[in-house]
Amino acid sequence: MKAVCWHGANDVRVDNVPDPKILNPRDAIVKITSTAICGSDLHLYDGFIPSMKSGDILGHEFMGEVVELGPSVKNLQIGDRVVVPFTISCGSCYFCSRELSSLCDNSNPNAWMAEKLYGYSAAGLFGYSHLFGGYAGGQAEYARVPFADVGLFKIPDGLTDEQVLFLTDIFPTGYMAAENCNIQPGDTVAVWGCGPVGQFAIRSAYLLGAERVIAIDRVPERLQMAKEQGKAEVINYEEVDAGEAVKEMTGGRGPDSVIDAVGMEAHGTGLDALYDKAKQAVRLETDRPTALRQLIVACRKGGYVSMPGVYGGLLDKVPMGAAFNKGLTFKMGQTHVHRYLQPLLEHIQNGDIDPSFVITHPMPLADAPRGYEIFKHKKDKCIKVVLKP
Ligand SMILES: [Zn+2]
Ligand SMILES: [Zn+2]
Questions:
Q1: Which positions ≥6 away from 350 have C-beta within 8 Å?
Q2: Rounded CA gap, 91 and 11, in Å?
Q3: Ligand index nearest the alpha carbon of residue 96
Q4: Distance of CA 197 from the midpoint of ligand 1 (Å)
């Protein structure tokens, strides 16, 4: 089959690789009909996630049709149309039974690697390095899905791939980010980063009852999407000091909650951004938290800091003094996708949201190298690439 394979920083290729096979009784093989490139794939593309090997198949946002089932999968049938959560979960461990599926204890065969770095291992992830299980990803013609009886979510007829594909990651991720803000009636939520997750966080904040959403970015088309489709008030941080602007727009009190939809590769305009770039380049720091620093300072006293953006390792100069003295609450982590599938599908079916709004670049799987290139450099007004095998 054809698959998008990682061969080093800034080097992805569409290779011919062996078809996946059923390895365990709870596996399924899915023939992929749509798959997307995610902002977190860029951390792999840029070479910032350790334990990648040349030839690893990328991709964790994918859906398709069940073509083969292991003998223990009783709740699905060949031909079912399914979406695949990016987190791999067993469905029955301590964490899965508490709806914390991204923290599954049984899905990372390389847990020892993660334990060394993080103390304990979270769930395995599709196409996201050996540290997270070494699973082949879904930017391919076929994929093997472990724990398919809990890992595949059947899609009812009448919805397009484009409407449901983002149930795999960015819609639940934006939604959990907003949920982590503990939104109360009248609240103002400020979202740093208007990439795909930021766009879904904006929409979700309104779905959860926010009165105002302020969105911060520097890319004109992202700000435009946030404003026109998302109904957010927008700030271009290259034109004004975003922290000061947010303070002014909230009557000097600050937003009730702030969302970091940027993560470890933030760009910035200040001295600290240069400091991070230099330290990260010589591997003295793993992550560049410029957005995080700013939003911690901007948040109102007693507010919520929600962090859907990915962090990998050690961060410098995070203003914990500000966080402590303002009594902030932090919520973060990989999304517990499984618990959001049904409720968010219902939002789509009810017409509350059509997630396809975020797609700017549909293209054939064979064009994946170009897709990565334009998405990374935000060329051609690219916000979200969907690949069609
Ligand atoms: Zn993703
Ligand atoms: Zn589990």
A1: none
A2: 35
A3: 2
A4: 8
